[in-house]
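Q: What would this complex look like in 3D?
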Amino acid sequence: MTDIERASPPSRKRILVVDDSSLVRLYYRDTLEKAGFEVEQAINGIEAMEKVLVQPFDLAIVDVNMPRMDGFSFLRTLRSSPGDVATLPALVITTEAGEQDVAAARAAGANFYLVKPLSQQDLLRHAAALSGAPP
Amino acid sequence: MPFVKRDVTARSKDGRPPDDNLASHVAALNSPDGETRWSAARALGGRADAVPALAAALAAEPVARVREAIMTALIRVGDEASVMALLPYLRSQDAALRGASIEALQALPEAILPFMTSLLADSDSDVRLLATELARNMSAADATRILCRLLEHERHPNVCAAAIDVLAEVGTREAVPALQSCAERFAGTPFLPFAASTAIARISDTER
Amino acid sequence: MAGSETHGARAVRVTPEEVRRLCEFLYRRTGMLFNDNKRYYIDRRLIERIAATRSASFQAYFAILRSDVDHEIEHLINAFTVNETYFNREEHQLRCMTSVLLGNVIRRKPPGGAIRIWSVPCSTGEEPYSIAIWLMENWSHVDSYNIEIVGSDIDTRALKAAANGVYGERALMRLSRDVINRYFRPVADGEYQIDSGLRDSIQFTRANLIDAQDMARYRDFDIVFCRNVLIYFDDASRRIAAENLYDCLGPGGYICLGHSETMSRISPLFRVCRFPDAIVYQRPEADHDGH
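A: Here is my prediction, written as structure tokens for the whole assembly.
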């Protein structure tokens, strides 16, 4: 690391929020931005895939109940993409807590799994941990 | 020029006029060959007299593409019987089937309207949650009335969240009291008070 | 925020959040998906439509849009899809065709086999002629196969113009002088006509994407360009058109939509293929039961 790199403040962690509900995206964005994260949004897996291919992210928060191009499908595409994109940490959000869903989430390549609705504290704690932000 | 010009109209597989025989198409719906079933479903599109056969075929169809074609055929009829043929799949264990049926029903906002009260009172919270989405394509007045009635009694937070999401897009000012009381009922919980106040702010924008 | 005056009326401003909500609505209704660098463009078009409908606010306009008063959805889509047609309009798709798609197509073909390409809607012919010219200029195997190019539209006047093949300078703006000289002849002031050999090589037909009987005449296509038309259809018609197009393609055949269009809101029948130059959709190579 050069002197300049050492001296400059660490850049903010970038999070991509993928959910088809504009209210949920707004909630996550407000919470995360206040805590110092940079937040991008995507309405579905297609838009999410477009964004991850052109911008770097430290974490994707993905709802898996979106219709059609659902979160699992996005994750699978992500994990089979070339380069760094494939290892993007992914926090999966679902309405179910059943074992089936945990197994499905793991199989699709999720790093972690939470059930909605999310409290702000849960969201921030997991966002920080999974994106590698300092505690 | 490396290009070849052929008469497209000469390529039709056979010269016979289209077959309007209901019985033969219905029989083809039960063919062991998926391609035949696909063609039969497409040929029966929009035929009200074919709904019972389409409904029965849908229940047994293993190939996703053919299921889609059967659903399209039902959508094209779009009457009460078609809706009833599609409704059971809202409860399916198969997420893809649930998704397909919701998409199909979303194309029929008028036909699904009479069913909304019972769907939103269903004992299964997943069904109620999916049903809120069906209100999105309805008139603002209908959607508001239906979803406010749901919000008055709904206890499941994710169902409320789904209803509020739709109201945020389509709700009229009549929705504001129900949204406020929902926020109060769920005060102190994550997300819902935020969602309700955001929805109210968007709706109230019409007051100018 | 963006805003504008309308003949002394109070300026209506739209926030980034409102633009996002508009995009979300458009995506659900039409399948159009706009990336972030399109947002400024959308701002301007939205404000135009707010003014045109004399709406006092975004919310008031949104209510009009949702209820599709006076076909507002169509007006809005028209505002976003530049309706002007010209040669090599989406060159990245043509590049994808010669760099990837055709390579995959010929793997299934015997030497000298037929390759069928369809442009529907073809409007006044710019697209099918562009495909033909592009192939001759850029595909090394263009002489090794029997290539059939068909252009279809529901508008017979447009088809007549297409068969006639006369275009103004504006339509040719993306073509080099060399290409224009090779394939066109000047016929009037600022007007050029496609060479008769090329004109005679393209078949122009009238076709309606929603009419299954119409569409039954089109089979075994390897590549279909179907741009900026499905977005205008309602849910039921979109599904019918998608099913028809599926049948018109051979197994493994490709379909290219408009730049901002996605198949996800239209139909699950096709797989998405992400290539360097373009995202295209493919009819699966073989029918897997359950897929």
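A: To summarize the key features: Chain C is about 40% helix and 20% strand. Chain C has a mean pLDDT of 91.
Q: Very helpful, thank you.
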